Amino acid sequence: MAGKLVKSIREAIQLAGLKDGMSISFHHHLRNGDYTLNLVMHEIAALGVKELTLNASSLFDTHAELEEHIENRVVTKINTNYMSSGLGRRISEGLMEAPVSFRTHGGRPRDIQLGITPIDVAFIAAPTADCAGNCSGKFGPSACGSLGYAFPDAMYAKKVIVITDNLVDYPLKGWSIPEIYVDYVVRVDAIGNPQGIVSGTTKITRDPVGLIMAQTAVKVIKHSGLLKDGFSFQTGAGGASLAAASYLKNVMLQENIRGSFASGGITGYLVDMLEAGCFESLMDVQCFDLKAVESIRKNPAHQEISAMQYASPAAKSAVVDNLDVVILGATEIDTDFNVNVHTDSSGYIMGGSGGHSDTAAGAKLSMIIAPLFRARLPIVTDHVSCISTPGRDIDVLVTQRGVAVNPKNQELMLRLKDAGLNVMDIQQLKAVAERITGKPGHLTRGERKVAEVIYRDGTVIDSIYSV
Amino acid sequence: MLRSMLFLPGNTPGIIINGEILGADAVILDLEDAVAPTEKDSARVLSRNAIKYMGFGACQVIVRINGIDTPYWQKDLDAIIPVKPDFIMPPKVSCAQDVEAVDQYITALEEKCGFEKNTIKLIPLIETALGIENAFAIAASSKRIAGIFLGGEDLTADLHCKRTKEGHEIQYARCRMVCAARAAGVEVFDTPFTDVNDDEGIYTDAQYAKSLGFSGKSAISPRHVQAINEVFSPSLKDIDYAYEVMEAIRIGKSQGKGAVALRGKMIDAPIVARAQQTIDMAKALGLGREE
Fold it and tell me: Do residues A212 and A306 share a domain?
């Protein structure tokens, strides 16, 4: 047991037998505060290892050093579920030879489990660990709450290295990932910057347009027929989504509705709903703020779940398949309800599906909230520049000027019309936007494929080209 | 009906573009205080084009032009009148002659555009001590006047006092404005509540304005619109009572009674008039029951 604890990241890499052409992995629970990926990549580069496949559940701007490792051919292939705009822009400009493979939060563990994207060495940043590798995100100076996305890496990688800045006596009480999966443990000074790991508090938008959309979203939920005892719900951490959660809480309390669970990335607003009795439990694959971290540490009804349990199509069942309602965002949506969350209006990579496609596929009601136009550009287009989530999985688009229901869901359309909501054909909504903004010109894409979008079932549903 | 009127800076397309969906009964496209002198022309053009090409749906459109003591107000009207806003709001109106100057200029422009005379109404903004003292003369000065509007911020500067949340310093002005407007048979609108982060304070301030007799209130933040609309809409209880009054009157008449009582109180003409106002407003807002 004591033999697992090694002196440095470099020693752990060497002991794990990392060689040219292998695959390494990281989770993204430390978000934009993560130091670990950079620390590890620095050591790998110093060791002269080349042509690695990097499998990271998400990549943030704090990982900008990757650009250098890509240029030096330390990393020659990336598999990820999300990439923020800094690195995304460079990838879109043609930084890598091999296209980036974007998966979903459910597709990634599926493909790891099925051996489609095998991992040779997993590096798991752990806010607290013991010398045997039992580890948790709930405690320590770099606490991030759930370690949900690290589970498939721990379970299926050939070698697993836990990196912690809070090494405690064996056995760690309340571990998330058990020692049975862990080969080596390394203690470092800091795995991340706490200020970038979780927000102090996530806040509801004060933007009046966002608040109008949130109010409309809650009306849609209320009149969908799904808001009753046993209700299950997921929403994001964006301002309008949080506002919707806050309004939904009021409706559930007023109407004395006791839901089953809320899932996904968990914020303080969902914790408030749990504590107010709106839900029986929270199913937490990732914490977004300090209140969520504190709650998962203290409240047994706030449960950590793995990425597999959250969304994997290879799991025997998953949380997303039990969702009633999910609220999602979009950078673009087309008149067939296909949604883009990968690229911006100029075609640059600035995001990724994350759990978008997984929850949209699983939930009974998948709702997109988006303003009808951003700056001078309408959000509804004839064809999205990248299909992240197919339109067949989207039920309704909520904007500040009206609600468009996918014609496949006639029941919802009738319910919302009967409730007096401003239901419009999506073509009408597009016309409303274009009357104000004008019709935007077509984006001309480059020749080179820089990324492929792999749907949760493993099929490639779209490609992203250079800008 | 103008319960709520929301100020939008005339040179901010990102805000104007969503003007009609923010819940206000009217938007006030501001060419005056919210716009720097170097931006006057762009605000004028943007506001004109927003009215002409975009529109504001069911929301009425008021344009606050620059004061008649500036070199801008005629250019403002030249640009705005041809796109036919519902109202023009001249600021710092202190006497009937101020209204007449604007009225005459608009009349000439209406004629040039082929509009019927007095198509475009006026809501003078009264925000000086002299204006308050002349409120009735202003309110009665033109057939274009739809209402008068109290501006508390400039007024308190003119009064040499601080503007406070409680508003004791504008108490006299508020009462005088209401009285003048009602005497002239026009509407009267209250000054905005300026603390955009005080979600409770806006209710208190709007309720107080309503209690004095104001027809509606302006807002500088969309977050205040809902509170203003709620306060200046009749409650379901008020609507039910109004219908009860009208029913009691109907029964009394059919029985040939000269005096009618409801819940132990005599119903006199002012009560009936208020009940009718409540019912008219409820109908306009689609509130309450059918007759």
Answer: yes
**Nearest in space to A34 (alpha carbons), one of A50, A56, A51, A14:** A56
The amino acid at B163: R
Per DSSP, chain A holds a count of helices (H) and strands (E) of: 15, 26
**For residue B93, what are the domain limits?**
4-232
In terms of domains, do A279 and A169 share one? no
Q: Is residue A257 part of a domain?
A: yes
Closest among A86, A91, A94 to A102, alpha carbons compared: A91
CA distance A293 to chain B (A): 29
Domain match, A23 and A43 both: yes
Which residues in A lie closer than 8 A to residue B54 (C-beta atoms)?
Answer: 435-436
Taken as a whole, chain A contains a residue count of: 467
* pLDDT tens for the 291 residues of chain B, in order: 899 999 999 988 888 989 999 999 999 999 999 999 999 999 999 999 999 988 898 999 999 999 999 999 999 999 999 999 999 999 999 999 999 999 999 999 999 999 999 999 999 999 999 999 999 999 999 999 999 999 999 999 999 999 999 999 999 999 999 999 999 999 999 999 999 889 899 999 999 999 999 999 999 999 899 999 999 999 888 899 999 999 998 888 888 887 788 888 888 888 888 899 899 888 888 887 655
Are B108 and B81 in the same domain? yes
What residues have CB less than 8 Å from B184, skipping those under 6 apart? B136, B139, B140, B145
Q: From residue A182, how far is each of A109, A116, A160, A185 by CA, in Å? A: 18, 22, 5, 8
Q: Which residue in A319, A273, A275, A267 sits closest to A293, CA to CA?
A: A267
Domain count, chain B: 2
Say how far apart CA B283 and CA B276 lie, in whole Å: 11
Helices A9-16, A36-46: axis angle to 10 degrees equals 60
* CATH value at residue A391: 3.40.1080.10
Residue A450 lies in a domain: no
> Does ipTM come in above 0.85?
no
**Residue A427, both tokens:** 């073509």
User: Chain B interface residues facing chain A, Cβ-Cβ under 8 Å?
Assistant: 14, 17-18, 21-23, 54, 221-223
Contacts of B223 in chain A (CB under 8 A): 206, 208, 211
Residue B194 lies in a domain: yes
Q: Kindly report the backbone phi and psi dihedral angles of residue B61, in degrees, each rounded to the nearest multiple of 5, phi listed first.
A: -115, 125
Of B86, B42, B45, B90, nearest to B64 by C-alpha is: B90
- Distance (Å) from the C-alpha of residue A251 to the closest C-alpha of chain B? 18
φ, ψ dihedrals at B219, nearest 5°: -140, 145
Say if the Cβ atoms of B14 and A212 lie within 8 Å.
no
Q: Do B222 and A208 touch (CB under 8 A)?
A: yes
Helix or strand run (H / E) with residue A130: strand A128-130
Q: Does residue B290 belong to any structural domain of this protein?
A: no
Other CB atoms closer than 10 Å to residue A46's CB: what's the count? 11
Cβ within 8 Å of residue B111, ≥6 positions away:
B117
- Which of A203, A206, A403 to mutate against chain B (most B CBs within 10 Å)? A206
Burial grade of B269 (CB within 10 A; 0-12, 13-18, 19 or more)? exposed
Task: Work out whether the CA dihedral A15, A16, A19, A25 comes out positive or negative.
Answer: negative
DSSP A188-249: -S-SB-HHHHSBS-------HHHHHHHHHHHHHHHHTT--STT-EEE--SSHHHHHHHHHHH
Tell me the pTM: 0.86
Residue range of the domain that includes A145: 2-197
What stretch of H or E contains A180?
none
